[in-house]
Structure formats: structure tokens, C-alpha cells
Specification:
Blueprint (H helix, E strand, L loop, with lengths): L1 E3 L8 H13 L9 E8 L3 E13 L3 E9 L8 H15 L3 H9 L3 E3 L10
Parallel strand pairs: 1-4
Antiparallel strand pairs: 1-5, 2-3, 3-4
């Protein structure tokens, strides 16, 4: 699971994990073509002041969160923007393992910690 470096709000890894779980349980009809749209909470404002995020699933194994915007800035993307996001999603879904690795090494993708660590007492 990865996110791009374009995030300007503090979104905890747990929010990304929760979004992936929702995607995994979502019926096929919830897809927007090659992508999913999810709500993510910000650590300082919660879900009501959170972001809408777009994610794509690559080969059924990796989730790439590649675009987000604060919900308090705007309600949704335009039709033109949605079309561009779908084109990007198609390209991202075709990334090879090497492409993912290059994006990480180049600082374009940031891995999201999947394993939850239990707090120590």
C-alpha cells in the first residue's frame, strides 16, 4: 500500500488501512471505473474536516492512493478532472513491481505501514 508525496494534510496510516479494508469489502459497483473514492480523516480535524482520496488497485495486491483534496475546500472533482483521474488510475494499475520500486526509490511513492503495532504498556 502506497501513497504519493502529494499529500499536504496529516493523515494517519490507520486511515489508509481502514480505506483499504473498505475497498476490499466493497461490491464491484462501488468502483468508479479503475478507481475508488474514499473519505480519510485528518489527525487534527477528523472525518468531517477530512479529505476525499482516490485509490487504485494494482493487480489485486497493491493499493496506491494517488490524489486527494480537503473536503472543506470543495465538494467534488469536476467531470474533466474525474476523466483525468481515471486515465491516471489505468496507468497506475499497470505498474510493474519494478515500477513501484522505482517510484519508492525516487520518492514518488511512500509505503504505508500495514501492520498495526499494539501499544506497549
Amino acid at each position: 500500500m502506497f501513497r504519493t508525496t502529494a499529500w499536504n494534510k496529516d493523515i494517519a496510516d490507520k486511515e489508509f488501512r481502514d480505506a483499504v479494508r473498505q475497498i476490499q469489502q466493497a461490491p464491484r459497483k462501488d468502483r468508479l471505473g479503475p478507481m475508488y473514492k474514499k473519505r480519510l480523516a485528518h489527525t487534527d480535524t477528523g472525518r468531517s474536516g477530512g479529505s476525499r482520496a482516490y485509490a487504485v488497485v494494482r493487480a489485486g495486491e497493491d493499493y496506491v492512493f494517488y490524489f486527494a483534496f480537503p473536503k472543506n475546500d470543495r465538494e467534488n472533482v469536476t467531470n474533466k478532472e474525474e476523466k483525468l483521474l481515471k486515465e491516471q488510475a489505468k496507468d497506475l494499475s499497470k505498474l510493474t513491481d519494478e515500477g513501484i520500486e522505482n517510484a519508492i526509490n525516487g520518492g514518488v511513492f511512500i509505503p504505508i505501514e500495514w501492520l498495526e503495532v499494539e501499544p506497549q504498556e
